[in-house]
């Protein structure tokens, strides 16, 4: 991992375009992104233990430009799996979403299956990536789980980070690791403790009412933190699920292999009957974007974002607006003549970012030079005065 992390250019642009929502529901604080046409059933992305809502920014930007709605959430501070099911249902009610498609990685995939088991009427399909069916092995590997809520933050972060393979990596995978590590640093002690508690809380996924044909299993073939035995158990549970294998990608293929992941997500959504609404993606003036119009104070981010006032995602009548008119690259394949590319598919990403022109008044450089000259002379005069005073004192002493 790199010693100094620099945010990727596409992430900086994402933060400037997509509003971050924070809503309190009961005692839980939900932090999430909601982007894309509201007329489309949403794909909700659930991160793993080390992830935040931000780790899916490449999926949000790519799929929303195609006319899909993507919601990425932080896992709130819930301490057992029953509490998770109840809290997530209240969250969906608060944002006025009833039927959902879930994409979960690692812990997020496990939580997605639990919710689909206990709330089958709300879940229409699942995309599971590098995930598992039960927590027994994690509980056995963490004997200090009963005191996790009192464990200092630096120990929790160290424990989480030791589960992430640290190099050598190819550049894209190394960048994905650096990004996720930077997100871990933003998590509080309570956030980390609650997520580790979820991974050790005794629970297993039971039979699902959801048809197996509406499940896609997307795994990487190189390595990941989830043991292969647990991934094999998942495949045995859903033998008729659609399989999507990524040759490489590591623990975070949504960051390291976004083109392939976005392709499989779009294929899954179309296979389960979710039709995109590209007609609701409109050109907009620069600096304007669909989403909640109200500002929020974001304690975790240095830039200004937006907040949902009513517990949901309020948008202008156009529902979602972004400029998708630039041509896209064709690195991921062909799907209705729309190649899926999340990091360089259009003018929103390097090297086609729109850069603001900063107009400097003509007199500014000259004005700066004169200020510097005046400052330099004042400093010189002050030094001469000090030297003169010391010389007088020396003469008096002599």
TrEMBL record:
<dbReference type="InterPro" id="IPR029058">
    <property type="entry name" value="AB_hydrolase_fold"/>
</dbReference>
<feature type="compositionally biased region" description="Polar residues">
    <location>
        <begin position="323"/>
        <end position="335"/>
    </location>
</feature>
<dbReference type="InterPro" id="IPR026151">
    <property type="entry name" value="Maspardin"/>
</dbReference>
<dbReference type="Pfam" id="PF00561">
    <property type="entry name" value="Abhydrolase_1"/>
</dbReference>
<dbReference type="InterPro" id="IPR000073">
    <property type="entry name" value="AB_hydrolase_1"/>
</dbReference>
<keyword id="KW-0963">Cytoplasm</keyword>
<protein>
    <recommendedName>
        <fullName>Maspardin</fullName>
    </recommendedName>
</protein>
<feature type="domain" description="AB hydrolase-1">
    <location>
        <begin position="41"/>
        <end position="152"/>
    </location>
</feature>
<dbReference type="GO" id="GO:0005737">
    <property type="term" value="C:cytoplasm"/>
</dbReference>
<feature type="region of interest" description="Disordered">
    <location>
        <begin position="278"/>
        <end position="339"/>
    </location>
</feature>
């Amino acid at each position: 991992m790199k010693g100094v992390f620099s945010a990727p250019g596409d992430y900086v642009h994402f933060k400037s375009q997509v509003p971050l929502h924070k809503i309190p529901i009961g005692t839980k604080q939900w932090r999430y992104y909601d982007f894309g046409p509201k007329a489309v059933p949403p794909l909700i992305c659930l991160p793993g233990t080390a992830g935040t809502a931000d780790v899916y920014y490449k999926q949000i930007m790519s799929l929303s430009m195609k006319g899909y709605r993507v919601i990425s959430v932080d896992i709130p501070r819930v301490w057992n799996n029953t509490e998770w099911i109840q809290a997530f249902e209240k969250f969906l009610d608060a944002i006025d979403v009833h039927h959902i498609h879930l994409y979960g990685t690692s812990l997020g995939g496990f939580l997605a299956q639990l919710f689909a088991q206990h709330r089958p009427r709300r879940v229409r399909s699942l995309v599971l990536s590098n995930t598992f069916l039960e927590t027994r092995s994690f509980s056995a590997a963490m004997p200090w789980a009963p005191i996790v809520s009192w464990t200092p933050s630096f120990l929790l972060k160290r424990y989480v980070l030791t589960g992430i393979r640290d190099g050598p990596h190819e550049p894209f995978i190394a960048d994905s690791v650096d990004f996720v590590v930077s997100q871990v640093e933003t998590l509080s002690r309570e956030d980390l403790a609650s997520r580790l508690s979820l991974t050790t809380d005794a629970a297993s996924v039971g039979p699902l009412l959801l048809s197996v044909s509406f499940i896609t299993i997307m795994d990487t073939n190189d390595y990941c933190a989830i043991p292969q035995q647990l991934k094999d158990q998942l495949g045995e549970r859903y033998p008729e699920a659609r399989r999507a294998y990524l040759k490489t990608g590591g623990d975070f293929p949504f960051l390291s292999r976004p083109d392939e992941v976005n392709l499989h997500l779009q294929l899954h959504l179309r296979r389960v009957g979710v039709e995109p609404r590209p007609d609701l993606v409109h050109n907009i003036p620069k600096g304007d974007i669909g989403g909640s119009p109200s500002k929020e104070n974001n304690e975790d981010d240095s830039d200004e974002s937006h907040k949902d006032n009513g517990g949901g995602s309020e948008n202008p009548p156009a529902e979602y607006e972004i400029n998708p008119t630039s041509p896209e690259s064709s690195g991921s394949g062909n799907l209705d003549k729309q190649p899926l590319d999340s990091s360089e598919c259009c003018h929103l990403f390097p090297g086609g970012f729109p850069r603001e022109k900063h107009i400097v008044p003509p007199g500014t450089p000259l004005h700066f030079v004169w200020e510097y000259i005046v400052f330099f002379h004042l400093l010189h005069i002050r030094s001469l005065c000090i030297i003169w005073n010391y010389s007088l004192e020396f003469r008096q002493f002599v």
